[in-house]
Amino acid sequence: MLKHNRGPLVENGIVVGNTTDKYESANPITRFLTDNFCRAVGELTARIAPEDIFEVGCGEGHVTKVLLERTEAKIHAVDISETILDIARGNVNSPRVVFACKNIYAIDSVTEHAGLVVCCEVLEHLDDPQCGLKILADAAKPYAILSVPREPLWRVLNMVRGAYWKDLGNTPGHLQHWSRGGFIRFVSQEFEVMEARSVLPWTILLARSMSA
After folding, report:
1. 3 lies in a domain?
2. 41 vs 62, 116, 120, 168, CA distance in Å?
């Protein structure tokens, strides 16, 4: 498995990962929160019971493992960074999962789509989230699970734990900030929101594409 220094991993000026990884933290509170997040994503995924999944922004493969465990679906998982994908391939080994390097803006919904699109903790990193949302809606045939950090709670919790003080608690690479209601309104431009879960400190939505 590829190793790299602790802290944000930056490629071409873009934060593509962070090895102070919440999913692998030894802190019991952090583990409790991330376990709740994974459980919620797993429950929503199992509710849809998709035959195929397109995961956009798979990162190190932690959510991919949840999707693999909770479904029998074939999973196409993409991320912007080959470095991060190397880690994901080390974390997830299944014939049902195919990894590929791709920028969300380069997704072609004609050939890249699925019964369930999963995009967790990606939209807050985009300089053009409106474009990203439209691409996800076109790729969702018809369902999507979308999540972002819940603001301003996310930044407050960062500061409470002593992180990113000079940036007022903003995690490196976070360009967009949504409250629960704000994210629902944003997603509702392209999707019908079927269920919204407030899983501290995230907002997770199950939605149906209006483009499907």
Report:
1. no
2. 11, 12, 9, 29
Domain enclosing residue 149, as ranges: 8-209
**pLDDT, position 25:** 62
β-strand 14-18 against 97-101: which pairing, if any? Answer: unpaired
- Nearest of 145, 146, 152 to residue 122 by alpha carbon: 146
Q: Look at the block and give the residue holding tokens 């920028």.
A: 103
What's the number of domains the chain is made of? 1
pTM, full prediction: 0.90
pLDDT of residue 212: 77
d(CA 79, CA 106): 11
User: Is residue 1 a part of any domain in this protein?
Assistant: no
Alpha carbon 171 to its chain's center? 15
- pLDDT at position 79 is 97
CA angle, 173 as apex, 88 and 146 as ends, to 5°? Answer: 65
Cα angle 180, 146, 79 (rounded to 5 degrees) comes to: 135
Residues of the chain with pLDDT under 70: 1-26
